Amino acid sequence: MTLERAAFSRRDVYDGALAVLVVALSYSLLAGPGGPDSALAWVLATAHSLPIAARRRLPRVAFAASAAAGLAYLLLDYEMIGLGIAVLVMMYSLAAEVPRRDSLIGLIVVIIGFLISAAGRPELQLGTVVGDVVGLATAWVIGDSAHRRRQQGVIESAMRADQAVADERLRIARELHDVVAHSMSVVTVQAGMARMVLEDDPEKVRRSLIAIEAAARQAMDEMRRLLHVLRDDRGPAEAAALAPSPGLRDLNGLVEAAAPGGTVVELDVTGERRELAPGVDLAAYRVVQEAITNVRKHAPGSRARVRIEYGAEELLISVASDLVEQYSPNRGGHGLTGMRERVELYRGRLETGPGDDGTFRVTAHIPYVERPT
Length: 373
Prior knowledge:
Largest sheet: 5 strands, mixed
Order of helices and strands: HHHHHHHHEHEEHEE
């Protein structure tokens, strides 16, 4: 069962308990002085309160069922005692769960039905009628406010997610700029060397030209990826340092850096090591780095197992950690978004979630980008 389904089930249990409580309160009022002695009145009062159990799962249906039972109770001229709590709960719930237009229709229908019923009850005082109408309107206003706050929260969450993606793309673009700049420095050095030995060592010139061709092709490939990353940005990336970016060769440093914080990282590398394109190497390193950072942040003191497998056609990266519950999606953060952006940049795929062995797993499959020869 996923965390989302578990939370949904707890919500249903809460609403069911609330429905039982309201039914019990209605029964206590019906059984008191002035309560109706008709069995149908008890049935309608029960039907009026029980839909509270589905007030958030099926808000429109639950409200309609509750309102219909309540109006039938009133139109049959039963004493109003036993009603009241449920209609306020349902009015609030409808306004909190559905768009304003729909909840306003529900409010108007209930008020009209109540007024029609009250018109045939001369014993009701005007103050009582006005008070009941105000109570219904107040429940609607409170529910509508809750609905608007929830909608605003959804909008703000979406905006934060979009900003996180934009920030991550800009960061990736900066790092790819480093890769391209490094390739251009190779071209410059090799071109200068070829110029100096142009007449004395043709073989060295040939090797330099091959290296220039390889570096230039690699730079063009990374430049295309950089432009793809920046396709939605409004301005150019800021200048970055031209030093080579980190890669899988630096994983031992990540492992050692995690130890002082109490996180034990086990590193296992299998398969025949091969030279990766700079962008792929950088993306793989960042995936491992972010996964270990998440372990240190959300599950301090736990153990992480990093596996790097050089397959025939793709690079497999797997990071498994303990304490799955620490990775609730409600904790916030955009580390997984950044990982996915990097992996998909190279037409790979990222899988995250609880594993069968009770761990949380981050698994990336990144196809090799062949280096030109």
